[in-house]
Amino acid sequence: MTATQRAMTLRLSEEQAAALEYVADVDGVSVSDSIRTAIENHIESRKSDDGFQQRLAASMERHQKIL
After folding, report:
1. Sequence-distant (≥ 6) Cβ neighbours of residue 44 within 8 angstroms
2. Is the per-residue pLDDT at 66 higher than 80?
3. Cβ contacts of 42 within 8 Å, gap of 6 or more
C-alpha cells in the first residue's frame, strides 16, 4: 500500500462476497480492483445526480454555518 492509499474495512454477506469474487475472477482483476472500480463508478454517478447535488449543497451550507 502506498502513502496515497487508505485501508478500509468492508463487511459483506457470504453471498455478496462470493458474487464479488466470481465477478472479479471473470473480469480478470483482483477483488480490491473490482471494488475500487465500483466505488469510482458510484461516485461518478453521484456527480450527475441532481438530487444528490442538492443534498450536498445543503450539507455544505449547514457545515459552513457550524464553522
Report:
1. none
2. yes
3. none
| Overall residue count recorded for the chain in this entry | 67
Please choose, from the candidates 24, 25, 45, 44, the residue with its C-alpha nearest in 3D space to the C-alpha of residue 34: 24
Task: Give the three-class secondary structure for 37.
Answer: helix
24 CB-near residues (< 8 Å, 6+ apart) = 30, 31, 33, 34
Contact 21, 29 (CB under 8 A): no
What local confidence, expressed as pLDDT, does residue 64 receive? 87
Distance, C-alpha 64 to centroid of its chain: 25
- How does pLDDT run across 2-61, given as a tens digit for each residue? 678 899 999 999 999 999 999 999 999 999 999 999 999 999 999 999 999 999 999 999
CA dihedral 16, 18, 22, 25 (to 10 degrees): 110
